[in-house]
Design brief:
By secondary structure, the chain is an alpha/beta fold. It has one domain: Rossmann fold (3-Layer(aba) Sandwich). The chain has an 8-stranded mixed sheet with strand order 3-2-1-4-5-6-7-8, with helices on both faces. Belongs to the short-chain dehydrogenases/reductases (SDR) family. GO terms for molecular function: oxidoreductase activity. Pfam families: adh_short. Keywords: Oxidoreductase.
Length: 308
């Protein structure tokens, strides 16, 4: 009985601390009229909330996702909540590099502007493989966005000043990259951590690659949010995780604040390649700031997606 009371008291304490913790909100009121924003995975979670917020600021918002039905439903919701009709969707499957190439070809033909690219879509810790034979986390979370960004970089440069936001996670700190096995797919959580570390290196190297082109980049950790990533798991796991998320995680609307901040803030533009948490720059672990590793990952990624 004592153990039960201890557990209950601990949970209550954690809940109170969570409620007391204040999260920063984006207070920059800059509008994005005439600008085009592309958000991968913008049909749910943080991506959808960011789409609503940026559409409210006047941006033309395009959400890219693989399920047309879910995308259409999300577009209707985003239009309703943002009171903007300038929202649409395009089909994109980041687990298929051919789909990424076809998407970029279509986008460049249809859209004359790209001012903000938000690499938001991500796969959770699942043991699965992409159509091209990469582990799902590494293939979708890193390689898919790597190819997407590179193929759209010319349009970003034409529309400069422009921005690239890549969502990552603080779990990056639990793993390092192994260049002998970048396609690691053994322990799901560690696979996810490596993909999120790759996102950080990618953002840093992209900042160096685009230096002088007025294209700034940001690695964004939205916090631990109450998203629907558990849909890939069993019913029991989903139920347990939903309880934990309700107690300790923040709503997706709050998580999207740092995305919005990095999309509009002049202050953020001074920290290209930086890692942002809670609407401000944050310090990375030393190993995650290794420019040599970032460059090596970029070159390896070019080969893997056949850009060279």
């Amino acid at each position: 009985m004592y153990l039960l009371y201890t557990i209950i008291a601990s949970l209550v304490s954690f809940f109170i601390l969570k409620c007391m913790k204040k999260r920063r909100y984006c207070t920059d009121l800059k509008r994005l009229d005439g600008k085009t924003v592309l958000i991968t995975g913008g049909n749910s979670g943080v991506g959808k909330e960011a789409a609503v917020a940026l559409a409210m600021r006047g941006a033309r918002v395009i959400i890219a996702c693989r399920d047309p039905d879910r995308a259409e439903k999300a577009v209707r919701e985003i239009k309703s909540r943002s009171h903007s009709l300038n929202v649409l969707h395009m089909e994109l499957d980041l687990a298929n590099l051919r789909s990424v190439r076809e998407f970029c070809k279509s986008f460049l033909q249809r859209e004359k502007r790209l001012d903000v690219l938000v690499n938001n879509a991500a796969m959770p810790s699942v043991l699965d493989w992409t159509d091209d034979g990469f582990s799902m986390c590494f293939g979708v979370n890193h390689l898919g966005h790597f190819l997407l960004t590179n193929l759209l970089l010319s349009r970003l440069k034409e529309c400069a000043p422009s921005r690239v936001l890549t969502l990552t996670c603080s779990t990056y700190k639990y793993q390092k990259l192994d260049f002998q096995d970048l396609n690691y797919n053994l322990l799901p959580f560690f696979t996810y951590c490596r993909s999120k570390l790759a996102n950080i290196y990618f953002s840093q190297e992209l900042a160096r690659f685009a230096e002088g082109k007025d294209v700034t980049t940001y690695a964004v950790h939205p916090g631990f949010v109450q998203s629907d990533w558990t849909c890939h798991y069993s019913f029991l796991f989903r139920m347990l995780t939903q309880v934990i998320m309700w107690m300790f995680f923040v709503p997706c609307e709050v998580g999207a604040q740092t995305v919005v901040y990095c999309a509009v803030s002049d202050e953020a533009a001074k920290h290209s390649g930086g890692y942002f948490v809670d609407c401000r720059p944050s310090t990375l672990r030393p190993f995650a700031r290794d420019a040599g590793v970032a460059k090596k990952l970029w070159e390896a990624s070019e080969r893997l997606v056949k850009l060279v």
